[in-house]
Design brief:
Layout: H1 16-35, H2 40-44
């Protein structure tokens, strides 16, 4: 459920596995929402130089 229109708040009272899965889905939906509308070039543009980011470049 990663949609730019839907982001469900995770439950605050649940077992550990349910909370972990729900928070992960919540954060995935947040990233999708924030990245919506970016061009392919902007999505791959590095804002700051970093040695850590060289692993992700292909």
């Amino acid at each position: 459920m990663t949609s730019t229109e839907t982001r469900i708040d995770p439950p605050y009272v649940a077992d550990e596995s349910t909370q972990l899965s729900a928070f992960l889905e919540y954060h995935r939906a947040t990233v999708v929402t924030k990245a919506a509308g970016l061009s392919e070039e902007d999505a791959h543009r590095s804002l700051l130089p970093s040695e850590l980011m060289t692993v992700a470049r292909g």
